[in-house]
Design a protein that fits this description.
The chain is an alpha+beta fold and 123 residues long. The chain has helices at 48-60, 77-85, 103-122, and strands at residues 2-5, 20-29, 32-39, 67-73, 89-93, 96-102.
């Protein structure tokens, strides 16, 4: 389970009084992890969900995880948008949607973003 809090983290993910603003729960089976994610409504569309998914990919890759799958409803524009912007495969079947993220692609995107941020700060 990954969490995003206000303020710095203490000794563990639930340490301190800071409210949880984002949460990603993963269940790993073989080379696939199932993802459940929730982000505070006030912080949606600001990269919190994307960051949680990318950090999850970094943590899962050494375990041999190749894909992260999220199951959602067709009305969940946030998850579908997260999938699209992350290059995930979106499969729609009778109103149910499967968002399939490629772990290596997520990891590359995280490294590229970190490099861009570093260059921007030094410029």
């Amino acid at each position: 389970m990954l969490t995003a809090h206000d303020g710095p983290l203490g000794d563990g993910p639930f340490h301190g009084a800071e409210p949880v603003r984002g949460l990603a729960e993963l269940c790993v089976s073989g080379s696939t992890a199932e993802l459940g994610i929730s982000v505070d409504a006030a912080l949606r569309r600001r990269g919190v969900g994307t960051s949680l998914v990318r950090v999850a990919a970094d943590m899962l890759a050494p375990r041999g995880t190749r894909t992260i799958v999220a199951y959602t409803m067709a009305e969940n524009a946030g998850m579908i948008g997260l999938g699209r912007t992350s290059g995930a495969r979106i499969e729609n079947s009778m109103g149910d949607v499967e968002v399939v993220f490629d772990v290596e692609r997520l990891r590359r995107a995280r490294v590229a973003r970190a490099a861009t941020s570093t260059v921007a700060r030094t410029a």
